[in-house]
Amino acid sequence: MRGLQDSWYHRSWITWCLLPLTGLFCLLVSMRRALFRANLLQSHKLSVPVIVVGNITVGGTGKTPLVIALVELLRKQGWKPGVISRGYGGEAAKWPQPVHSDSDARLIGDEPLLIARRTAAPMWVGPDRVAAARQLLSESNVDIIVSDDGLQHYRMQRDVEIAVVDGARGLGNGHCLPAGPLREPRNRLKQVDFIVVNGGGSNGIAMELEPQPPRSVADDHRTRSLDDFRGQSVHAVAGIGNPQRFFQMLERAGLHITPHPFPDHHRYSAADIDFGDEAPVLMTEKDAVKCRSISDGRHWYIPVAAQLPDEFGQQLINSLER
């Protein structure tokens, strides 16, 4: 699998071999979208506005920090937002499921738990986002829904679409699966309301992820300055879509890291984050929500905050009021 993913971002003979399957994939996803747009497949309109935050590539692009920022932005504008998500990786026996700050990531997924802990917003998750949204509306006093992912979940109608693009990796080789990383053809980006580029770029709204003071994985109340680790040798753990982004952030802060990349949504054991020495172990917040019970005083996580242009907030509100 790693070799296939590498081929999406570098020249490879694998790409050429898979192009016939890619053509079929593009045709099928385009036909599916056309059927929804022609009302030949049923979609559902909810009683409140829906903002979908998604991407057209496989893997992480920075959707979760943007969802958190949107919840905060909407609250400042007087809205009462709730959040829905798929709950990817969750093993709950039935869906949809509510998400609270003390929920079990193994049941509802790591990203939903991170969002719930950071925003305290009412949240429900499930593979059927329409069902999750309806449950959210029946259980909570919300007047707008932010959908974490779901750009391709056309059964749920949406009022605003935001596509997030990784500024470093872009759209890879520009091909759809399996020859490339695209879930939909690249012209899908012409149909969304906003393109947010994580890491900045000229083809969308620039978003930068700003590191926040490190927090103890075992005890959220313990914090340190990132400068405390400057010049030190530390272990860096990242089980996200693009681990290199986290590693590079630490290196820019002046840390000497030993990188330990893991697959996205990795389920950690104690051995995964114990490297046989007393050096600090720094990880992403997404990893930390799964490591609390197996961590000790060596383990710290780095929250990030999405920084967006001021004008984006007003543009978003204007879109909702159209």
Can you summarize this structure?
This protein has 322 residues and is of the alpha/beta class.
User: What structural class results from the helix and strand content?
Assistant: alpha/beta
Radius of gyration, Cα only, in angstroms? 20 Å
% residues in beta strands = 15-25%
Unreliable stretches covering 5 or more consecutive residues? none
The ordered string of helix (H) and strand (E) elements is HHEHEEHHEHEEEEEEHEEHEEH
Largest sheet: 9 strands, mixed
Spatial order of the strands forming the largest sheet: 3-4-2-5-1-6-7-8-14
CATH class of the largest domain: Alpha Beta
Instruction: Report the principal-axis shape.
Output: globular
Treating each run of at least 4 consecutive H or I residues as one helix, how many helices?
Answer: 9
Report the strand count.
14
Assign a percent range to the helix content. 25-40%
CATH architecture grouping of the largest domain: 3-Layer(aba) Sandwich
Structure explained in plain terms:
α3 (63-76) runs parallel beside α5 and α5 (110-119) crosses α8 (285-291). This protein has 2 domains: 7-208 and 307-320, Rossmann fold, CATH 3.40.50; 213-302. By secondary structure, the protein is an alpha/beta fold. It contains 9 helices and 14 strands. Helices cover 31% and strands 20% of the residues. It has a 9-stranded mixed sheet with strand order 3-4-2-5-1-6-7-8-14, sandwiched between helices. A 5-stranded mixed sheet has the order 9-13-12-10-11. The model has no long low-confidence stretch (mean pLDDT 94).
